[in-house]
Amino acid sequence: VADPLQVAQQLGAEGRRVVIAEEPRQMRDAGVVGRQAVGLLIVDHLQAMLDPAQEAIGGDQGIGHRRADSAGRLAGFLQQHPAVRSVTWPGLPGHPQHDLAMRQQNGLGGGVLSFRVKAGGDVQLGRERAFSVIDATRVCSITANLGDAKSLICHPATSTHQRLSDADKALVGIGPATLRLSVGLEDVQDLLDDLGAALDRI
Predict the structure, then answer these.
(1) Of 30, 66, 129, 179, whose CB neighbour count within 10 A is largest?
(2) Which helix (H) or strand (E) segment is 113 a member of?
(3) How far apart (Å, rounded) are the C-alpha atoms in residues 23 and 139?
(4) Which run of H or E residues covers position 152?
(5) CB neighbours of 181 closer than 8 A, spacing ≥ 6?
(6) Block means of pLDDT (10 residues each) for the chain, length 202 residues?
(7) From the CB of residue 78, how many other CB atoms can be counted at a distance below 10 Å?
(8) What are the angstrom distances between the C-alpha of 1 and each of 6, 7, 108?
(9) What stretches of 81-137 show up as alpha helix (H) in DSSP?
(10) Report field, pTM of the whole predicted structure over 0.85
């Protein structure tokens, strides 16, 4: 495994934008980061630097671009899957805030999407199928966080939005069959295969 400091110095010498922690060796050895946002940036940048197939850091081909591209491919795939009822992603032309999202996100749709599995209006079946998809994923991690270097999947009705009434959940588009996916930096084909296999089980 390459030393992150040496890799960062090499990339910096080549004129590429690099984020280097003040004490990278101590941080690497101790594994301690004071703030979550700083930690996320460090993980994102180190993964990008250490993976030769990873896109350049920053600019139009940076991490945000990669996440949005992957989210777009996943949204298109999910729209076509027979077990999926609907997909919500600002990058889709049919999204009610598509134009606003494109202006605010430099033409990207962002890295978070949600989708509903088909359940024929049966609340219990919708929840069971949603949890079946979550349990069957192998690449996605099950957590309610957003914006990690790895893809995260959750059931918003019982996690991030559990305190809302059923009426309020419905108002914001969250039901028992809804799943939220925060797209990470994995190869998009791995994510497509993972979600496809999970959906094929229901």
Answers:
(1) 179
(2) strand 112-117
(3) 32
(4) strand 152-154
(5) 71, 74, 112, 113, 114, 115, 140, 151, 152, 153, 195
(6) 57 55 48 60 61 43 83 96 95 87 82 94 93 95 84 93 89 92 94 96 90
(7) 26
(8) 11, 10, 33
(9) 98-104, 123-136
(10) no
